[in-house]
Amino acid sequence: MDVINAIGRRKAAVARIYMNEGKGKITINRRELKDYFPSEILQYIVTQPLNLLEAGSKYDIKVILDGGGTKGQAEAVRLAIARALVKVNPEDKTALRANGFITRDPRVVERKKPGQPKARKRFQFSKR
């Protein structure tokens, strides 16, 4: 099997992954998964597609992460892994889609408008 690459995005986070056959090692920005995401919840989010297909120990995954916060980064990695697994075996797509791992979450931060303190917040109105 060749190296399979995929991209996942969430909010401002972008995850580029390179997946090949191996023993189940996940490296993020040259650090172990447990070092990069110390939180058990974020580690669980990253490994959800692998656990669903019981492919946790089949592939070595190298991730290059950029931008965003920790939660957005974890969800970006999850999307990238799901997309790579679909490239490996297209029949897995229905199972991954049923669990919501294929759909890209389009929600991003709304831009700040001029003349306002934030995107929707207004300065206090004074009648006189």
How does this structure look, described?
There is one protein chain. By secondary structure, this protein is of the alpha+beta class. The chain has one domain: Ribosomal Protein S5, domain 2 (2-Layer Sandwich). Helix content is 33%, strand content 23%. The chain has helices spanning 33-36, 40-52, 70-88, 93-98; strands spanning 4-10, 13-21, 26-28, 31-32, 59-66. Strands 1-2-5-3-4 form a 5-stranded mixed sheet. Strand 3 and strand 4 (31-32) form a beta hairpin. Helix 2 packs parallel to helix 3. The longest helix has 19 residues, at 70-88. The model has no long low-confidence stretch (mean pLDDT 93).
List the helices and strands and how they pair.
Elements: E1 4-10, E2 13-21, E3 26-28, E4 31-32, H1 33-36, H2 40-52, E5 59-66, H3 70-88, H4 93-98
Parallel strand pairs: 3-5
Antiparallel strand pairs: 1-2, 2-5, 3-4
